[in-house]
Each structure stands twice: as C-alpha cells, then as structure tokens.
Design goal:
5 strands, alpha/beta, single chain
Length: 102
C-alpha cells in the first residue's frame, strides 16, 4: 500500500504490482491512471470512495465503508477476467482464497 506522492516500494516495479493505492486528497484518480501503468486490478482509496481499476478503466466505485469486502471483490475481478495474480500480491490473495473462502 503506497500513498501517491511516494514511489512504490523498492521491490515493486510499478503501480500495477500494488493491491491498494492511497490517493492524496488533491489528487485526481484519472490523472494517476494516465500517469502510471496499471495492468493488474488494484483498489484506489479516495477520501470517500474505493475505486477498483484496471489499466485506465474504472470498473467499480464502492463506498469506503465496504473496505472489508474490497479484497473479495478484487479477487472476483481476477476470476471473472481470467487474470493471473501478480507475483507481488499472489501470496496474500492465495491465503485469502484458501483460508477465508473455504
């Protein structure tokens, strides 16, 4: 999880390898999507909403109160679009898939 002004963790190659990205209050999500390549589904956390995005496309807008359900919705996106988990989030999503969704 990285706030926008901060570069992704050194082990991360791009924003597409994050699971959740925290937007600054003055930051426009559309500008972020144009500026940084996002190839895997990620959650953008705004002050009021959660945005599920892939590439430059907004898929779903969720109220911030649904943050506890957002990882499951994100996993559903991987399943629906037949995507492979990014290697950086694969362990976390695999644990959720095997332990939580039993």
């Amino acid at each position: 999880m990285c706030p926008s002004p901060t570069a992704p963790h050194k082990k991360l190659g791009s924003a597409s390898e994050e699971l959740i990205h925290v937007l600054e209050p003055s930051e426009d999500p559309d500008m972020l999507l144009q500026r940084r390549p996002i190839t895997s589904p990620i959650l953008l956390l705004e002050s009021a909403d959660l945005l599920l995005v892939v590439g430059t496309m907004l898929l779903i807008t969720l109220p911030k109160e649904m943050i506890h359900q957002a990882p499951l919705i994100l996993m559903g996106c991987y399943y629906t679009f037949h995507l492979t988990y990014s290697r950086y989030v694969a362990t976390l999503l695999s644990v959720i898939q095997t332990e939580v969704l039993k």
